[in-house]
């Protein structure tokens, strides 16, 4: 089995370095025409130039691939519109969108300025929503689209000092949970990647020896699968150091406690059974939970 992107057009945001660069190079190697977006700023999102994106485009071209650079910020409405119209003018379609751009502004919640909370949500959540909003109608029209968002173990599980980042990173999962439903009939699949890699973003948070193991190239195969023709939809794939796993939001089977005279003490006394995960399930859509509640409450 070969995963090919021949004839496909892909946009990768934040592809001037780190994981995004690695994704862009592999897409191009597999035949995709790639739009390398990067604002070229620092890890905290300040400053910027298109030099980072230009350098990756040069690398792709040197390897015989096709690519163009775009220096827009994913948070900027006009910039995003420009990125999409540039792609359509140059390549005429958009099959794949990898939302990868990201920044960090870590501080414990007590010390965090609201501006830093807002900025991180803007880049991770709105910086995913805006490019997706711009390409979604094009993908619908084409009857084909693959959208990947970039989550993080910080959002799925938590990481001290990252309330802002964690909120954004789980926000993008909530976003695709619904988008996957809205894209289904037009063959648009939406997945999330939760990567771990040694990049400029994490080099101060990881020991130097992590650099050998946690290469971006050992994460990228997960991204390629998640945007491929046979990709699943609604999947959260985790990847790092060549290890791959899937994360799911699971719900315990739960129990019906009756409604007559029901109190908080009933919940407290039964909490261990309520929280018993032995028959836990992951739902594909919210309505399945309501269905279960009806069934249990009507004694089925
Ligand atoms: N490295 C990890 O271990 C790790 C873990 C979990 C999630 N992630 C996520 O993976 C993604 C890639 O991170 P990375 O580790 O490669 O870091 P990185 O800093 O090397 O790459 C992020 C890129 O995004 C670009 N960018 C930032 N703001 C932008 C904006 N507004 N518009 C366009 N581009 C912008 C930056 O210039 C940079 O090139 C991020 O979303 C990050 O949060 C990384």
Note the main attributes of this structure:
single chain, Helix Hairpins, Rossmann fold, eight-stranded mixed β-sheet, alpha/beta
Describe what this molecule looks like in 3D:
By secondary structure, the chain is of the alpha/beta class. The chain has two domains: 9-247, 3-Layer(aba) Sandwich (Rossmann fold); 250-300, Helix Hairpins. Helix content is 42%, strand content 14%. It has eleven helices and eight strands. It has helices spanning 18-29, 51-62, 77-91, 114-142, 153-156, 163-183, 210-213, 220-226, 264-269, 271-274, 287-297, and strands at residues 9-12, 33-37, 66-70, 96-99, 145-150, 188-196, 236-240, 243-247. The chain has an eight-stranded mixed β-sheet with strand order 3-2-1-4-5-6-7-8, with helices on both faces. Strand 2, helix 2 (51-62) and strand 3 form a beta-alpha-beta unit. The model has no long low-confidence stretch (mean pLDDT 97). The site of nicotinamide-adenine-dinucleotide has 33 residues, from helix 1, helix 4 and strand 6. Nicotinamide-adenine-dinucleotide binds next to helix 1, helix 4 and strand 6.
